[in-house]
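Lab manual, section 2.4: Encoding a predicted structure.

Procedure: take the sequence of the chain (450 residues), apply the prediction step described in section 2.3, and record the output as structure tokens. A sample record is shown.
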Amino acid sequence: MNVIQKLGAKILGIDARKDFLPLDQNQLFRQLFKYYGQNTPVQPEFNMEEYIRQGYNYNFLIYSIVSFIARKASKVEYKAYRYTKGGQKEELPEHPILESIYAPNSYQGKSEFLEQYHGFKLLTGNSYIYTPILDSGINRGKFTEMHVMPAHWVEIVSGGMFNPVGGYRLRYGDDVKPFDVDEVLHSKYANYYYDNGENLYGQSPIQAAWPLLQKSNSNIAAAKSSFDNKGAQGVLFDKSEVTSNGMRPQLTEEQFQKMQARWDKKIRGPKNKGRILMTAGDFGYIDLGMSPVDLALISDSQATKRDICDIFHVPSILFNDPEGTTYNNQKEVRKRAWTDAIMPECDHFADEFTRHAKNAYKSEGDIWVVADYSAIEELQADKREMIEWLDRAWWIKGSKKQEIMGMEPDEELDKYFIPMGLVPSDELSIDPTIFEQAKEQNLDYFRKKD
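Recorded output:
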């Protein structure tokens, strides 16, 4: 037992000789998280850098899914509103809070900035935005620029037992740069693993899909190897009996190496695909390899693809799954991709950005940033259906219809618009008994039909 383990046993109040389990140093430090003091980094057990390297950088499916969601989400527009105590809201079309999104820094525009933000979150479960707070001038206490931080290099610094997040630090090799907690917007997915403080970090979808990712990568490597090594289809070999003296001719090591080199030259390479190598004598045959179909690589790849797509909440049809490829299905699955995967990402960004920026603009009232999906083509079918329904819904005021459609209500339309053909029944100069007569006639018709 080393000094670290003895110290841990003393802190935990256990008998080091009887009760202390054999733990390595990293495991012990994670168990002792709740005893950390201030300015101590919380170390996650998982390796976010591997999620990027083996996922986005190597696996074409992970790249396709993450880039699809991140690029679509980066195109969404945002609006700012000020809410009053009476529940009314006022749009702020040119507020500085929007300028931070549309012009985040001197080298990035909105789309590139948000693609990075969403991409890091999809891969690591966390996104960090550095927002340097101005300490002087007219914009004192506010931020005028934003920078996406590499999530796999950011560490959460504990502020002690009663202040779990005391700050952040960016580690690059041996260089470490600290950041105040107010300077960093940390957006994360839910993490229900509360041991060792790991819940302070978001859980990456790839963490749950890790076995599937490894399986997918092995599938890719196996398929590539199958094609790379597909030279000769097989080999014929000599099955002749031993000689009269009971001995089978033996090759020297030099003869074997030369023959092996000659066979490799004849067998390997795509130009020898399907070729059979022949030898003299009584022939036998050995199959040198199986096709990807024989190895079930293709069918297994499709099954793995569907599982990974499910984890990212996107339909696998969008990523060349042959099942259900009709036009109507394509239209529906693109809509589903927005409602199940892209819109939640954008709404979460709007909520977290609003939370982070509220202190900077609290003197101006209750300001919120919301995502605007009115220009998204895949969602326009719903808009058309809504317009047609609202056109017939005369019992809803015109201003309320505008609000339902995401527009600013117009006070001039705060009234009901009733079609001319609609007349109250008590104003009709018709004998009421005519309705009873019509009812009896309908009943007689159905009785005769029975």
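Check your result against the sample. The mean pLDDT is 78.
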